Amino acid sequence: MRLAGRYAIITGASQGLGEAIATRFVADGASVMLCARSEDTITQVGQRLGQTAAAGQRVVTRRADVSDPAQIDDLVHATMCEFGRIDILVNNAGIYGPIGPTHEIDWDEWVEAIGINLLGLVRACRAVTTIMIGQAHGRILNISGGGATNPLPRLTSYAASKAAVVRFTESLALELAEYGITVNAIAPGALATRMTQQLLDAGPAQAGEQLHQRIQKIAQKGGTPLSLGAELAAYLASDESAGITGRLIAAQWDPWHSLHERAAELEATDIYTLRRIVPSDRGRDWDA
After folding, report:
1. Using CA of residue 149, residue 156, residue 89, residue 57, what is the dihedral sign?
2. How far apart are alpha carbons 201 and 54 in whole angstroms?
3. What is the rounded radius of gyration, in angstroms, for the C-alpha atoms of the chain?
4. Is residue 118 within 8 Å of residue 145, measured between CB atoms?
């Protein structure tokens, strides 16, 4: 029950990773405000988790579209009315956006993905920051992904937004460090979710042969377990991870279970961050 007595907002919590994180948080003792664009679906998730909550825990749901600034403000206000404080924000809401060559896809759809994946996330962070500063405590978790560290042709709005999320995470972490607030990004791995099915349905002509084949393999093998990303989120939301901030941590590949033992060493390095690679990093003397 490492999150007992903590209060969290989780966006995009109606399915996939968001639902898995909500399930993990409730199991670990947190009270949660869950939001998604589908009121029916998020209500069903809330009812299910409410049945598993212990005495004193609360599971509250609310329809909210993170691309709408007014709805974010309403969500945060409603959470404060329900709980009186906000200890954790999990920015999980996201979409792939348009799939296809950048010069051919619908521009409004491209912008919409940026609005949800990046701008909605930043707005949510802004909305809780003053509250967390007043508490002298807070945990902000931003869900990133493969688009942050690898080029994704035909998914350029998704890739651009996820890379921006990581650099925003690093920057915000430095801004808020003095207030006892940590900010980290999570790479949950290749998940077999509704979004994965979107790429399969798009077909190789639209998604690209190489990406489509990779997604087919992920779907066949089942992808990275959702529980792994959810467990990492719970770890970073807990006091156990105090001192770890401004990092992009991969649920599947990084030794995060014991990362708190290396917090001081980690703080002195650029490990788990986005950085430009120069020739000398690859054994070349071009910049000599």
Report:
1. negative
2. 41
3. 19
4. no
Known catalytic residue at 7:
no
Catalytic option among 7, 96, 158, 272: 158
Would you call 179 helix, strand, or coil by DSSP? helix
Which regions in the chain score pLDDT beneath 70? 191-195, 198, 222, 288
Kindly state the tokens that stand for 38: 């589908």
∠ Cα 242 245 248 (to 5°):
125
pLDDT of residue 217: 75
Q: Which phi and psi angles does 199 have, rounded to 5°?
A: -70, -40
**31 neighbors 58 (Cβ within 8 angstroms):** yes
C-alpha torsion sign, points 104, 69, 26, 254: positive
pLDDT digit string, tens, across residues 174-183: 999 999 999 9
d(Cα 277, Cα 275) in Å, to the nearest integer? 6
* One-letter amino acid for residue 221 of the chain: K
Phi, psi dihedrals of residue 223, rounded to the nearest 5°: 70, 180
Alpha helices, DSSP H, located in the chain: 16-27, 39-50, 69-83, 107-114, 120-135, 156-176, 194-207, 209-221, 226-237, 263-267
Pair of tokens at residue 136? 């002298």
pLDDT tens, residue by residue, 145-203: 777 888 889 999 999 999 999 999 999 999 999 999 999 999 987 766 666 776 777 77
Pairing state between β 7-10 and 181-187: unpaired
- Model pLDDT, residue 41: 96
